[in-house]
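User: Show me an example of a complex going from sequences to structure tokens.

Assistant: Sure. Here are the input components:
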Amino acid sequence: MNLTLVTDRDTDQAVRAASPLAVRGMTVSYGQTPAIFSVDMTLRAGAMTAIVGPNGAGKSTLLKAALGVITPLAGSVTVFGGTMADMRDRIAYVPQRASVDWDFPVRVIDVVMMGMYRQLGLLGRVRGRHRALARDCLDRVGMADFAHRQIGQLSGGQQQRVFLARALAQEADIYVLDEPFAGVDAATEKAIVAVLQGLRDAGKTVLAVHHDLATVPDYFDDVVLLNTQVVAAGPVADTFTEDNLNAAYGGRLTTARADPESVAG
Amino acid sequence: MLADALLLQLGYNATLVAIGACLLGIASGVAGTFLFLRKRALVSDAISHATLPGVGLAFVIMVAMGGEGRSLLGLLLGAGVSAAIGLLCVQWLTRRTRLGEDAAIGAVLSVFFGFGVVMLTVIQTMNAGRQAGLESFLLGSTAGMLRGDAILLAASAAAVLALVLILRRPLALAAFDPGYAEATGWSLPRIDLAMMGIVLVVTVVGLKVVGLILIVALLIVPAVTARFWTERADHVVIIAGIVGGLSGFVGAAVSATAPALPTGPIVVLVGFGIFLFSLLFSPRRGVLASVLTHLRYQRRVHVRQGLLALAQGQPIYETLTQRLLTRAGLILPDGVPTAEGQAAASKALLDETRWAIVRGDQAYALAATRYDGLTPIETVLTPDQLIEIDTKISAPEVVA
């Protein structure tokens, strides 16, 4: 009996060490109602994972708790088997576009430079290679011509690309994105997907909250179906099934799903 | 007289006051910028009002210890401690209770200020110490400013500038995108604490010059003014420092020209004057500029709509449209288009037809986002693309 328990723990230890980002028993509550409850999530290295679920399922909450932006009631996070504090620099983050004030006096290039603040520290001088990296990151998202615009002059899709460029400037191994395709134009969605798949092909790990069920099989390798608790998680082909979706969305599935034909399984 | 004052020719004390007020203006302008950008400007109001009980208590303690209770350093220390307690109360109420920050500020501000007024009233009836002049902390008083006071202001201003220089990255990051700041490992509570600490220092050393009621103006007005002139946070900081320093210097000089002009309020009024000028005349964000931009845009829309109506042979009802077209020589007063008007009208119609095709074609999705009803399509597409579009316009006719 004891032996099995120890072995289980050892196995999980190995699983967590191999995973870029592993969440165990995460519960976050606003007041007395849990937003997410006892969530386990293990990302596969070099894969694109979508967190999918109905409104209010706790998708953004799970991201923020995993990144340590909000303090969970219970649960732990490991990054490449280490603690978040030690491994923080290996994670890049793209917050929801609506979370910031776009009238803020800052230019596109300055926002991208913010991705290097961690590396620059308080007094590190901005050198030519930093500026070159910032320009390169803007170029990768197709925003090089907008470097000196004030961010308020950009469209929603362009703002989202700038946020992605800032995350690229972090030169991380894990990219965590909160609703990257919300309210962006089709051209931007295509551009962002291309950049993310490029990252995946370079061996990086991508985790995104996603709201469009129709595109999950096209864009992502793995999926986590969330509705306060994890309903199902794993490769899209096995996990993204009619039954699992019904379990996650309940009766709301027919309205939530744009294109039933594209559901795999 | 004013020229003498601005050139520091009005004697030793006036010169000290002008330099001191200028330094305070620079420090408060720079410190207040991050408060303004973080959208927490009103916290400074709570901090400043919370200094008053500290002044009173420090006086009582110093008298009880056998002094006269007039040591400026002692009084400011008291002010700093009670302001810090007030600030912690605001933070605690905001984080740990369901009260919003506005309610927390209102509660702390009024309670601390009320307690401070009670303290001062009680002190007036005390038989020990020299209490005269304590009320100058309310509105400031520069009449008796000493060399030591000016040195204190200079040292504080230098400290504030150095701290802002060191902390500029986390301060800007926390103001723009606090969630990202936390996710990339910066401690938001510590950044806020540093920002509030800087503001607290400025508030406390500014008490003697402008008083606790008006220091808020020196913290906020320069930043708000600077925002009219730039789209970059680092430039807002620098311009706010200049505006603050200029208000302090000019205000102190003006108040030195007549004995009845109080320094603090005049400094604030000078700052307000610069703000008013910026509000009206700033080239991009000013009131005048936005009215002109709106009118220009409205005219372009009317001309465009008028031309499209002409091209489709519809009557023009709006008098503004008629007037604009007549003035441009596109129609005659009786509404008949001129040759020029006819050319412009068919050009506008062609433009609209081409746009309609671009907007209906997925291949031009990016170009379609540039459509605003006014932009000529040839500024967005290449001549080759236009030729391709035009084949689609004539295509149905060929089939027919």
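The lines above are the inputs; the final block is the predicted structure for all two components together. Chain B has two domains: 2-278, 288-390.
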